[in-house]
Amino acid sequence: MSDTAAVTRHAPASRLLHWLTAVLVLTTIPAGLIMVQEGLPRPVQDSLFLYHKNIGPVIGILVILRLAVRVARRPPPLPISLPRLQALLAETVHWLLYLTLVLMVMSGIVRVQAGGFPMELWDPLMGGMIGKDEALAASAKAFHDLCKTVLIVLMAGHIGAAAMHGLVKRDGIFSRMWPPV
């Protein structure tokens, strides 16, 4: 890799946090979609619920760390060959992904706690922050579901753009974030 290429890549910490978050989100969404299906064997459903609700806060921590790294190590500038509208759209989608992920985690925690359910790994740290409240749990569940749809749309656009830059255009934008370390 040339010196110029090294300068145009994200910091190693940003790349690692990006791909860790991606893997967890890409496993948590299917787990969340499957765990609520009728007729699922109870042990499978319990395992999916356990994974989904306990990985959510991990994703939240990774996003916060990613934002801290982004502040400490500004992302490299986009190539001047990228049209201004595409650059603005990319920036907007990135910030909406961060926001949506944080809102997903927060609404999931509220839904679980207000629903009176345990967060096995997290209860020692944040158990009992919110008392049982069925109305609040229902609102948090509806908001979590809305965020899920927004997140899936944003991710589809993000992954589609990454694939276009990495496989079709081969303009170096994908390699800013790849490989993970």
Automatic annotation (TrEMBL):
Domain Cytochrome b561 bacterial/Ni-hydrogenase: 9-179
SUPFAM superfamilies: Transmembrane di-heme cytochromes
Swiss-Prot/TrEMBL GO biological process terms: respiratory electron transport chain
Cofactor: heme b
Designated name of the protein: Cytochrome b
Xref: Pfam families: Ni_hydr_CYTB
Keyword list, A-Z: Cell membrane, Electron transport, Heme, Iron, Membrane, Metal-binding, Transmembrane, Transmembrane helix, Transport
Compartment(s) where it occurs, according to its Swiss-Prot or TrEMBL record: Cell membrane
Family the entry assigns: Belongs to the cytochrome b561 family.
Stored InterPro entries: Cyt_b561_bac/Ni-Hgenase (IPR011577), Cytochrome_b561_oxidase (IPR052168), Di-haem_cyt_TM (IPR016174)
Membrane topology: Multi-pass membrane protein
Record-level GO cellular component terms: plasma membrane
TM region positions: 16-35, 55-72, 93-114, 149-168
GO molecular function: electron transfer activity; heme binding; metal ion binding
